[in-house]
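If you are new to this repository, start here. Below is one unmodified record pulled from the training split, so you can see the exact layout before writing a loader.
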Amino acid sequence: MTDGARRLPVVVKDQSTTTLQCPMLTETNYNIWAIRIKAVFKVHRIQQALEPGEKEVEAKKDDMAVALLLQAIPEELVFQVAQFQTAKEIWEALKTRYVGVERVREAKLEQLENEFEYLKMKETKTVGSFAGRISQLVTKAASLGTTYENKKLTRKLLGSVPAKYVPIVASTEQFANLKAMTFQEAIGRLKTLEDRIKGIESLAEIKVI
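And here is the target side for that same chain:
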């Protein structure tokens, strides 16, 4: 789906010269795509072609619906639905394919969210490695079409570190604007304290020797 997802949106015009964009279907946007494509069809007064019910759809309207659907899906899917003659048949085929995909995607996102929620930094881990683990989850979520806000990442990082980081976390929450603070800035603050702790521990070891 990658090549199709990068295609530019198809611009169409109705009789009132209103410019519309046909949304492009991808592996992760079926639900929102379906809502948007229905809105486009409504403007063109051809929405009945997707769900005709008992009333027969005019051939001209159905042809327009088919044409728009074929322009709103990736090229590899065009070949797969070319066997169908009506917009309803194409619509149902896409729905059957992507509803299953969407359910799998939602299950994976729920699993990632649970993992993100319960993720805690161990005493033996470094700030860098823990932040890297958070970033991995963010990347996986992004591949499934979901973006984590910077504020959520920052709060997760500051709220999941061991007790030795509590002073810097408390200071950050008291004097810094967490809403504006970036995830990378929060990492930097914790690393500064981490380096100080390591320095103190190194001096202590030297004195013992």
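Two things worth knowing about this chain: The chain is about 65% helix and 5% strand. The first strand starts at residue 10 and ends at 13.
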